[in-house]
Design a protein that fits this description.
The protein is an alpha+beta fold. It folds into 2 domains: 1-42, Single Sheet (N-terminal domain of TfIIb), CATH 2.20.25; 45-85, Orthogonal Bundle (Arc Repressor Mutant, subunit A), CATH 1.10.10. Helix content is 31%, strand content 16%. It has a 3-stranded antiparallel β-sheet with strand order 1-2-3, with no helix packed on it. Helix 1 runs antiparallel to helix 2 and helix 2 crosses helix 3 (76-85). The radius of gyration is 16 Å and the shape is elongated.
Amino acid sequence: MADVNVHCPQCHSAHVYRHGHNPNNRDRFRCCDCLRVFQLTYVYEARKPGVKEKIMEMYLSGAGIRKTARVLNVSTNTVIRTLKKENALA
């Protein structure tokens, strides 16, 4: 069996433990330092790193909500929610 070094994506600590699995049977991990629960790989596109930044970048360059959702393969609700959290739709 191969060992995999898992580090927390939030605080980069190596002090993590296996915290069950998601409905798709992928392992979940929990950091003992910051208590964040995370997975090594995500199926849903919006959870992948850098997607929120791409949404903001496309919005600032003038792309519409539907086009952004179509290009990034996420829901229009995800795009709107991200823009509201960043106060871009004020």
